[in-house]
Amino acid sequence: MPTEPAPPPSARTRVRRQADRGRYDRETIVAILDEALVCHVGFAVDGRPWVVPTAFARIDDHVYLHGATGNVALRALAAGAEVCLTVTLLDGLVLARSAFHHSMNYRSVMVFGRAQPVTDTEEKRVALLALVDHVVAGRSQATRLPTAQELRATLVVKLPIDEASAKVRTGGPVDEPGDYQLPHWAGVIPLDLVRGAPRPDVADGPPTS
Amino acid sequence: MPTEPAPPPSARTRVRRQADRGRYDRETIVAILDEALVCHVGFAVDGRPWVVPTAFARIDDHVYLHGATGNVALRALAAGAEVCLTVTLLDGLVLARSAFHHSMNYRSVMVFGRAQPVTDTEEKRVALLALVDHVVAGRSQATRLPTAQELRATLVVKLPIDEASAKVRTGGPVDEPGDYQLPHWAGVIPLDLVRGAPRPDVADGPPTS
Questions:
Q1: Rounded CA Rg of chain B
Q2: Which residues have CB under 8 Å from B141's CB, separation 6+?
Q3: Taking chain B, what is the end-to-end CA distance rounded to the nearest angstrom?
Q4: Does A51 touch chain B (CB under 8 A)?
């Protein structure tokens, strides 16, 4: 994605609550998308909302989602449903001297728009490898690649990152002026999604249960 | 919440994709809700979806959300919008021998329904303290409690945990029978949301920027 001036926010992407936390530059939006492992995809079916957690990958200025061809959520997206795709990274628990000012440090992104199915086989293949590489960099080069049948069994859709915004909170608690002398501990408990030691699969065949 | 037989899933809560991952018992649903620090709340405004990450707390058989009285999302919920509230805990990256069978271990919950505003001041106070205690157990007893003005400035809504389901994946990769002899590393990289060493706030007054 080329670096370019941040476009003005739309009526939907303009951050209203705590507007100073709004970020509209592509660099910030892309960095959050690339760090997050899952997104929450929201869409309405017959006016009723659904929020589905799913893996994703970004390539240039699109977010790619995938699933089985029978996946109800993906089929709704492929059919052109409006989407709000949200990712959230938690960075810390913010403990203030007052209950009222407790907060969290986080980085989130919302992308609004409509997805479209990816029908080109090569684009689909590239997207599926990007989904694997999004989780572990370079991983697609250390796996068996998708067969033609696996590609056919997979529905891939892409959502343009056109109408998007980020919201970011950093730093310590902000208490009422009169509360700073209170004896209560205040500060930040950092949060980090940590990857543990890899546990090799020792099976020599699929589970039989 | 009393332990009771799992109610039959509704048309919305019945897990369709990988149905063997569906869990409908209250114990599982409540445990996931209680461990998660944020939820993603989905609702439609004029038929267009929104997915907003936010803190929450469970008390008995309700999920409580809060925000400023001007918060657009909360106001939509308080006005009776249909809601899909989703929480997702990531437990591991599942690396298979084939790109196709890569997956994640996770525990998620979806709650469908309509929220209602909490108007009783005492229930509101209890909910706000539960929100603080949800993040750090017992924390509400080590803070300045909400004033009447702070209570008035806060909108609290509650969503019943009536129509809810969980989805859980555990274990290692499941590859095609013919792929187990491939030389590619396969296994699970555990994920854990870790709390770091607390960083005390040393300010003696609010930021002046």
A1: 20
A2: none
A3: 46
A4: yes
CB pairs under 8 A between A and B: 277
Tell me the domain boundaries of chain A. 19-169
E-state strands within B69-162: 82-95, 103-114, 116-117, 154-160
User: B161: which DSSP letter?
Assistant: S
ipTM of the complex: 0.94
User: Could you say which residues of chain B have pLDDT below 70?
Assistant: 1-7, 209
Tell me the CATH number of domain B19-169, given options 2.40.50.100, 2.30.110.10, 3.40.50.720, 2.40.50.90: 2.30.110.10
pTM of the predicted protein model: 0.94
Exposure string (b/e) for B33-61, b if CB count within 10 Å is 16 or more? beebbbbbbbbbeeeebbbbbbbbbbbee
Q: Is B126 on the interface with A (CB under 8 A)?
A: no
Query: Do A42 and B50 make contact, defined as CB atoms within 8 angstroms?
Result: yes
Contact A198 B188 (CB under 8 A): yes
